[in-house]
Amino acid sequence: MPLLDEIADKKHALDGARPLPQDTVHDLADWFEMELTVAAVGVEGVPLKRADVKAVLERGTVLRHRAADEQRFVLNHRGALELMARLSYEPNGVVGERTVAAFHSVLRQGIDEEAGKYRDGPPKDDATGSAPDPAKLRVSMSALSGWLRRAEPAPDTAFEAHHRLMAIRPFHAGNAATALLLCNLMLNRAGYPPVVVRGEDRALYADLVERAWAVGDKTPFRDLMMRFLDQSLDVCLVAAAKGLVEPARVSKDRASDENS
């Protein structure tokens, strides 16, 4: 079965399991917070290990004897995910240029004086010198904003939004993490879980993102993102099955106790 059909079937199964038990919702939220933050740290080249990310998230504050900005990025990403969650429940709200700037502003607050502001030079990750001219950023972002307002929420829309933002790379740093936040917001609004860039796929992801905007070949990038989406749906379905089975078992055990 083609992956697109599998994703449609899994989405249908997940919709059928909704509403999920609150415990399951909280467990999934915690899992995605951790995995999405580890992914953001990875794609942005922040030198923190998974254990460091876990420690910062659990403490909810910057730890002593470690680089403050790196830890602040973790806490900021949590704030950006909270913003994404709020916007996900506003299906009629406009997603556009201001949304992108808001994500970046939260993500880079306290780290970058230009948080939420467009770059006036090449982005930090522009090794080849191929990034668009800063003078054209406002026109490019306005065009992206117009496209986002017209686009229907769907996986392909989410992946195209990621591609278009990475082709522009409007900020000095934090473009990839911001693009993933935008992508996942669009997925959430369409009723899908967010995609996670796992460590073993990070290099391939970076290569295909670059290939998409450098030579215009977006198909491999789309296929990879579809695979990520399929993996996230699997995580949700496993959690849903566990959450639906356990309450039923508890009820059965309770009824047995009452009849004994």
Automatic annotation (TrEMBL):
<protein>
    <submittedName>
        <fullName>Cell filamentation protein Fic</fullName>
    </submittedName>
</protein>
<dbReference type="InterPro" id="IPR003812">
    <property type="entry name" value="Fido"/>
</dbReference>
<feature type="compositionally biased region" description="Basic and acidic residues">
    <location>
        <begin position="114"/>
        <end position="127"/>
    </location>
</feature>
<feature type="domain" description="Fido">
    <location>
        <begin position="95"/>
        <end position="227"/>
    </location>
</feature>
<dbReference type="InterPro" id="IPR040198">
    <property type="entry name" value="Fido_containing"/>
</dbReference>
<dbReference type="InterPro" id="IPR036597">
    <property type="entry name" value="Fido-like_dom_sf"/>
</dbReference>
<feature type="site" description="Important for autoinhibition of adenylyltransferase activity">
    <location>
        <position position="44"/>
    </location>
</feature>
<feature type="region of interest" description="Disordered">
    <location>
        <begin position="114"/>
        <end position="134"/>
    </location>
</feature>
<dbReference type="Pfam" id="PF02661">
    <property type="entry name" value="Fic"/>
</dbReference>
